[in-house]
Amino acid sequence: MMRLRGRWLGALLGLAVLAYPWLAPSDYLLRVGNVVLVYAILALGLNFTVGWTGQVSLGHAGFWGVGAYTTAILTAKLAAWSPWGAMALGATLAGLTGVLLGLPTLRIKGHYLALATIGFGEVVQLVFNNWRPVTGGADGVSGIPVLAIGPFAFDTERREFYLLLVAVALLTVGAARIRDSGFGRAFMAVRDNELAADVAGVPTTSVKTLAFALGAAYAGLAGSLYAHLLRYVSPDVFGFEQSLLMLSMLVIGGLGSLAGALVGALVGVALPELLRIFGVYYMAVYALLVILVIVFMPTGLVGVARRGGPRERPPRWLARVLPGLVR
Amino acid sequence: MNELVQLLVNGVSMGCIYGLVALGFILIFNATGVINFAQGEFVMLGAFLAVTTLMQWGIPTLPGLLLVAVGMGLAGWLFQRLAYQPIRDKPLLAIIICTAMVSAFLKSTALLVWGPYPMSLSSLLPDSLIVVRGVVLPLQNLAIIVLTGVLLLALYLFFFKTQPGLLMRATAQDFDTARLMGIRVGRMVGATWVLGALLGAAAGLLLAPMWNVSIDMGGSVALKAFAACIIGGFGSVPGAVVGGVLVGLVEILAASYLSSAYKDAVTFLIMIGFLIFVPRGLFGELVSEKA
User: Fold this and answer.
1) The pTM is what?
2) Which of residues 129-148 of A touch B (CB under 8 A)?
3) Chain A contact for B28 (CB, 8 A cutoff)
4) Residue B112 and residue A318: Cβ atoms within 8 Å?
5) Is residue B255 a contact partner of residue B214, using CB atoms and an 8 Å limit?
6) What is the Cα–Cα distance from A123 to A126, expressed in whole angstroms?
C-alpha cells in the first residue's frame, strides 16, 4: 500500500515538473526553474565529492566557472567551436582541474582540505577577474549563442527547461549507476573509514581524486549549460558564496542522497527567491533557516521525509530559551 | 632602498592586522576544534560598533571603545551559545556550514543596521606622516604595529601570568582532564569565544582608518588570516602572528614587484603550497585534526 502510494506520488511529482513550463505564470519564474536545474547538476556533482566520499570542498564554484568560461570563450569570443564540442571540452577541462587540485591536496583532511579548496576557488576567480585578454576581466564575456540541435534552437526559457531537465535526469541516473558500482562502494568506504578502506585494498588516493574529478566534471557541464542559459558570464558569480550555497544545498536536502541533492537545489534556489519579500535582508533569514535545518534535521529534508518527522528533539537549551515555541 | 623600507613597514602593519584575526581563529580552534568562518564578521562588527559609538553617538574615544569591547564580548558569547553549543557534536561539515551561515547572517544583519554605504572611521589613529632618514612613514602604520605589540604582550601576560589564563590554556590543551580537575570548562570555552571576538574587533578598529568600514571588509581579511594560520602552523599561537606578518609582507611585495592584480593569488598559492609540502607550517606543533 505504502509502495503504491509512493509510486503515485512519484508520478504526480514527475508530471508536475514536466508541466511546470506551462504552469509558471511568468518567464521570470521559468528562469528560476532553469537555474534550479543548473544547481541540481552542481549539487549532484558536489555529492560525489562531499556526500559519498566525505571530502569537504568549498571550491566547487571554481569548477563551475571553468566550464562556463570555456564555453563562453570558445563559442562567443573565438566563435570557432560548436557549442556541444565546447561543452564537452568544458566538462573535461573542469574534470582535469579537479584532478589537478585533487592529486596534491587530497593528502590533507578536514579543515585543511576545506581551506585549500577555498584558496583554489579564490585563485580561479582572480584569474577570471584579471586575465583580461582572455576572460574579459570584470566585464565578463557576452554574446554566447544558444544551444541548437540542427535547426532546432533552445532559444526560449521553455525549451531550455526541457533541455536542462533531460540533462538532470541523465546525470542523476548516471550518478545512481556510479553509486551502485564498485566505484560508488569505494567512495563510501573511503568516507566511512579511510584506514579500513586502505587496508582492504581500496586505492584511497585515486578514489578520492576520481570523486573530485567527477564532481568537477559535473560542475563544468553545469557551467557550460549555465553560460548558454544566461548567454553571458561574469566573474563575480563564481565565488565563495556560491560554493557555500552548493554545500548548504546538500546539507538541506540530505548529504549523500541523490534525491537530497535535487531537493536541496530546489530549496537553495527557490527559498531565497521566496525570501525576497524580506528585501536585501533575505540572506539573514536564509542563513537562519539553514542553521535550524542543521541543528534539528541532521539528515536533511529527505531524511526527515523518509522517517516521517524530525529525528532529533529540540535541544534543552532551546526549550529553556524559547519555552513557548518548543512545547 | 627607501621605497623598500616603506613597503616593509606597510606590509608588517597590514600583517599585524591579519595576525590578530588569525590569533582569534587559533584560540577558538585550540579550545573547540572549530574553525570559525565568521571570524571576519567579528572584524566588521567591531568596526561598525566603533562607527556607531564614536561617530554617530559622539562618545569620547575611551568610553566609546569600552562600549565596543562590551558589545563584542557579548557578541562572542552569544555566538558560542547559539551557534556553537547546539552543533558541537555534529560532523565537521555541519559545523563548517553553520559558522559560514552565521557569517552570512551577520553580514545581512549589518546591512540592515548600518546600510549598504561604506562608512569612514578616521579619528581613531593619527593620520600624518613622519620622515625618518629620508624614509616617509605613515604614523598610522607605525601605530598599528605598536598597538599590536602591546596587545600581544597583554595577551601573553594574561595567558601565562594569571589564573584565568592558566585555566583557559588547560581547557584548550585537554578538555576532559581539565573538567576532571574541576575547571568550569564551559565557561572557559565561552571566554575563549569572547576573546576571539575581541581580537577580531581590535583588528577591525585598526583596519577601519585605512579601509572603509563596510559589510564586506571582514571576508577578505578572514581569508588572509586563514592563509596566515596555515603558513604559521595551524594551532600555533606564535605561528598565527608570524604567519600574519608574512602574509602582509608577501602581499605588498607581490603587489609592487609582480602584479597588483594577482597579489591575492600569490598569497593563496603559497598557502596551498604550504598545505601540500609543509602541512605543519613554520611553527610545526604536532597537531592532529581534532574534529
Assistant:
1) 0.85
2) 129-130
3) no
4) no
5) no
6) 5
